[in-house]
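Me: I hope this is not a bother. Any chance you could explain this protein sequence and its structure tokens? It all follows right here:
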Amino acid sequence: MSVTLNCSSFKMATAIVQALLAGQLDVAYLGIGAAMVARAKGADIKVVASNIVEQISMVALGNLSPYFENGDAKTAFARFKADQGRKAVISTFPRGSVPETVLQYWLQKQLGMSK
């Protein structure tokens, strides 16, 4: 069976998100940021193939790192604070960015922490 595809290309993520929302596409190859925006705006999308796994990483440095290696990750920040006498300093990109969104998900949904 031979299949012919009708392909379109976009120069910007906003244009592909607009096309998704308008129902103009059946398949799109795009970055996770554009996919998150499209989904948040109501696009009925599902990831069916991926060329990358764990694109965004949480990195623990210095004195905090051992708390994730030994013991429950859900208690790592509390144990760190108890031992070090201070809260861990956390950094990411601006609010609404993919890394910040993933960080909030990890802290709230994976570790059960509140904002």
Summary: The helical segments are 13-21, 32-40, 65-69, 76-84, 98-110. The chain is about 40% helix and 0% strand.
